[in-house]
């Protein structure tokens, strides 16, 4: 990269950081940045920052016959928060082509953990559809981050894509059982993921009959959005917490606007357990602080309500009881300064 390009790139990245609200000092946004947070729904690949992707692209730029592709990739990632749905989807394709060996998996997992720690996330559950050969690299990155980024506790959820059928799902379950035993408690769950637009009420019913410990998105549960009262009743009866990802839902157009987000239905309407999450912070150009800021603005929440949301998220983490207690202690300490809690 020439010097001039490096300077332009740095300008671009710092502009992006500004527009993402990552480096604001005294604006009201700083409250959302300062409060300790819990992130329970974050896919590794979708969480890679534009800055890290840029570095990966530059590494690939050395490969023959890639010049055309590289400039197309750069155009898409430089769109930042103005990325269209098509460009966001293209991002996943680019990332898939870039993250294709063990050392890259290790590197991006570590960089994602560092990003979340920088955003004052104190507990993080990362998830990924993980080929057997990459699992070790993910765990190695989490282990190393214990020492290099000690402010954040990280656990891993192995994801099954329902679209890939029962054989693939069974392979993942077997892999998960294997690593549950040997990954020092780092593997804490299995994610049954799928496209909400291709599943129906019957599908959702089968999944809910398993009584999951948490629900990701929950976009199509309530009757107004293709779900049913029956599904809502199960979620309420078993008090299953819902992971809500506002920017992701609106940018990927599964929800039409922030004001129409089903957080209103569950949180305001039913006082149900809700957990604010990012889903894919890199692809959708967001941070967990921004998601809390957005939720507060959209639904008129006070700082105390936002604080209570972060604190209650601790109850729904998959790590052991001692981790929950340690996190609650951190919130108690930080609450003294941030919320005047004694
Ligand atoms: Zn997701």
Short description:
55% of the residues lie in helices and 11% in strands.
How large, in whole angstroms, is the Cα Rg?
20 Å
The coarse silhouette is globular
Measured by DSSP, the beta-strand proportion falls in 5-15%
Can you write the helix and strand succession as a string? HHEHHHHHEHEHEHEHEHHEHHH
Tell me the strand order in the biggest sheet: 1-2-3-4
What proportion of the residues is helical, as a percent range? 40-55%
Average pLDDT metric: 87
Secondary structure: number of strands: 7
What ligand molecules are bound, each kind once? Answer: zinc ion
Helix and strand composition category: alpha/beta
Biggest sheet layout: 4 strands, parallel
Distance between the termini: 53 Å
Tally the helices: what do you get? 16
Q: List segments where confidence is low: pLDDT < 50 over at least 5 consecutive residues.
A: 1-27
Written description of the protein model:
This protein is an alpha/beta fold and 342 residues long. 55% of the residues lie in helices and 11% in strands. The chain is built from 16 helices and 7 strands. The protein has helices at residues 3-19, 29-34, 44-47, 50-60, 67-77, 85-98, 102-118, 132-148, 165-182, 201-208, 229-237, 246-251, 263-270, 288-299, 303-313, 321-338; strands at residues 37-43, 121-128, 153-161, 187-193, 215-216, 242-244, 274-276. Mean pLDDT is 87; it is low at 1-27. Bound molecules: zinc ion (ZN). The site of zinc ion (ZN) has 4 residues, from β1.
